[in-house]
Amino acid sequence: MTISRRMAVAGLAASLVLSAGQAIAQAPKEIRVDFATYNPVSLVLKDRGILEKALAADGITVRWVQSAGSNKALEFLNAGSLDFGSTAGAAALIGKINGNPIKT
What we know:
The protein is 54% helix and 12% strand. The chain has a domain at 28-97: Periplasmic binding protein-like II (D-Maltodextrin-Binding Protein, domain 2), CATH 3.40.190. Mean pLDDT is 79; it is low at 7-12. The protein has five helices and two strands, in the order αβααβαα.
């Protein structure tokens, strides 16, 4: 049986719609973000409530977790107790090599 171009496009469109619905259903209710004195961006985001304001419309809350350095942030990420963390470049590289779930 050959598949027409129209059927292929319809199948692709259906799969995109279904996967989009699945992604919406799996949206988190809370994200966990680290903050640390070595990362001024995290301090500004936390102090001004920038993430909270941006995510409030989607019903997502932000839980801030203080980390005492890059290695702690990587430890928290690896343990699954953080969704977003910050580290120094070398620590991130070594962490990635060691299997930490780091994405850029």
